[in-house]
From TrEMBL:
Major enzyme class: isomerase
A biological process term (GO) from this entry: L-histidine biosynthetic process
Protein name: 1-(5-phosphoribosyl)-5-[(5-phosphoribosylamino)methylideneamino] imidazole-4-carboxamide isomerase
Pathways involved: Amino-acid biosynthesis; L-histidine biosynthesis; L-histidine from 5-phospho-alpha-D-ribose 1-diphosphate: step 4/9
Phylogenetic placement of the source organism: Bacteria, Pseudomonadati, Pseudomonadota, Alphaproteobacteria, Hyphomicrobiales
Reactions mediated catalytically: 1-(5-phospho-beta-D-ribosyl)-5-[(5-phospho-beta-D-ribosylamino)methylideneamino]imidazole-4-carboxamide = 5-[(5-phospho-1-deoxy-D-ribulos-1-ylimino)methylamino]-1-(5-phospho-beta-D-ribosyl)imidazole-4-carboxamide
Gene3D superfamilies, alphabetized: Aldolase class I
UniProt xrefs under CDD domains: HisA (cd04732)
Source organism of this protein record: Aminobacter aminovorans (Chelatobacter heintzii)
EC number: 5.3.1.16
Compartmental location: Cytoplasm
């Protein structure tokens, strides 16, 4: 079970948004490379990065910041936001990304995702961001008519490395992950699912260790790490089974 620390990039800075609103951004670090190294030093083994400007623009905007991250950390990095073509995918993988995350293009052009999976096996993830159970695109600015499971099933057998599922209504507000819909998705497809949006406390970390969550590849944490609500060493120890949490800690997140 992997805990992915998140770096969301806006105008070259590490930020967290509230409910995906670019006008509600809190700046946490002006040096994305230093933030990536800090996460590595804390014991994390992966890094989740999103080019927020790129998600809205439909092309890479924070490329320099991403490259600084890749030069600074030894951890594998997955990147989403504005990656819309095979050329974009190849370019980023050549620069050292472990995998790319395709969101809007997965809705607009699922065949491109399947082609990318064939060309770059194990290197392509799909980002499914949902509001009210429907998939959102273009940096969450537009709603589609597609349901979450409906979209996910389009990629069964295509070789997608993972699905990153975000509940927009919980993102950046520390409301706790929507475990019901996340686990429902994980049970509906064979593709590994990564939970995102709302991870708030050690209760969510403990919830990741429950039997029905075992199908998940992991979860992404942003604001709770930056705000100090989650102690990295404690969280990682719980997930690795070297620390037994206090009884009843996960009850609030059942």
């Amino acid at each position: 079970m992997i805990l992915f620390p998140a770096i969301d990039l806006k105008d070259g800075q590490c930020v967290r948004l509230k409910l995906g609103d670019m006008d509600q951004a809190t700046i946490y670090n002006n040096d994305p490379g230093a933030q990536a190294k800090a996460f590595e030093d804390q014991g994390f083994e992966w890094l989740h990065v999103v080019d927020l400007n790129g998600a809205f623009a439909g092309e890479s905007v924070n490329g320099a910041a991403v490259e600084a991250i890749l030069k600074t950390t030894k951890n594998p990095v997955q990147l989403g936001g504005g990656i819309r073509s095979l050329a974009d995918i190849e370019s980023w993988l050549d620069k050292g990304l472990a995998r790319v995350i395709l969101g809007t293009v997965a809705v607009r052009n699922p065949d491109l995702v399947k082609e990318a999976c064939r060309k770059f096996p194990g290197k392509v993830a799909v980002g499914i961001d949902a509001k009210g159970g429907k998939v959102a695109v273009e940096g969450w600015a537009e709603a589609s008519s597609l349901g979450v499971v409906e979209l996910a099933r389009k990629f069964e057998g295509a070789g997608v490395a993972a699905i990153i599922y975000t509940d927009i209504d919980r993102d950046g507000v520390l409301a706790g992950i929507n475990w019901d819909s996340t686990i429902d998705l994980a049970e509906a497809v064979s593709i590994p699912v990564i939970a995102s949006g709302g991870l708030a406390s050690l209760a969510d970390i403990v919830r990741m260790t429950m039997p029905d969550a075992k199908k998940l590849e992991g979860a992404i944490s942003g604001r709770a790490l930056y705000d100090g609500r989650i102690d990295p060493a404690q969280a990682l120890a719980i997930l690795r089974g070297t620390l037994k949490p206090e009884p009843g800690l996960f009850e609030e997140r059942k």
